C-alpha cells in the first residue's frame, strides 16, 4: 500500500526518528540485551512503560516487567488494552507522558496495530522519542516499529502481506522488519514484500540480536546477524555485532 513507505524530506532523517532511539530485537533470549535497553532508557530510576498487548494472554505482570525489575528498574508501569477507543483517551495514555522508555513485547503484531494505530497512545509513544527517549521491542514489538507491517494477518504469521494489516507504527520509516530469522529459516521471506513495495528497506534480524537506531545510523548488537535488503533483488548486506548501517545511503559501515 502506498502509505506504507513514507517519503522523508531532505531536512530530516529518511529512516529513523529525528530524535530519540529505537531498540529493535529479533526475538529470543534477552539476557545480554536487557542491560543495553535499560542504559538507553536512562538507568534504573527512569520511568519505563511496558506494553504487552501483542501477547495472546496478558498477565498481571508481564515477564518483561519482571526482567526489568530484576535488573533494578524502579519505575516500570504496565499499560495494556485491546480497545482503541480507550487507547485514544488521555487517562489511559497518561503513563507515557512522563516515560523515558517504552518496551513492546513479543506476540502477534496485529494486536498492537488494532489497539493503538491512530490513537493518543501511539502519539504519546512518538512524543517519548521526541523528548529524546527510547522505544524498544522484540519479535512482534520489532516488526510493529516499521512503516510496513509484515506477518500482520490475524489468521497466522506465515502471510507476509495481509490486507488491512499492512501498516506499522512507522518509528522506522521506509522499512519492513522481520524477526526470528535464524531459528525459523526466514532469511529470504522479505523478498516478496520488497518486490511489491520496492521503496522499502528490508531488515531481517536473528534472535538475540538487535539494532540501535539514531536518526539514519544504526548499529548491530548481539549474538546473531542482521540482514539489510537495500533493494528487492540485491543480495542482503549481512552485519554482525559492532557493525553499523547507514539508512539513508543503505550501506554498511565499518565498526
TL;DR?
This protein has 255 residues and is an alpha/beta fold.
Mean pLDDT: 94
- What name goes with the CATH superfamily? Class I glutamine amidotransferase (GATase) domain
What is the SS-derived class?
Answer: alpha/beta
- What portion of residues belong to β-strands? 15-25%
Q: Summarize the biggest pleated sheet.
A: 9 strands, mixed
| Total helical segments | 9
CATH topology: Rossmann fold
Low-confidence stretches: 1-11
What is the count of β-strands?
Answer: 14
What is the alpha-carbon Rg in Å?
A: 17 Å
Briefly, what CATH class?
Alpha Beta
What's the structural domain tally? 1
Keywords:
9 helices; 24% strand; globular; disordered N terminus; alpha/beta; nine-stranded mixed beta sheet; five-stranded mixed beta sheet; 255 residues; 14 strands; Rossmann fold; single chain
Q: What does this 3D model show about the protein?
A:
This protein has 255 residues and is α/β, with parallel strands linked by helices. The protein has a single domain, classed as Class I glutamine amidotransferase (GATase) domain (Rossmann fold). It has nine helices and 14 strands. The chain starts with 20 loop residues before the first strand and ends with a strand.
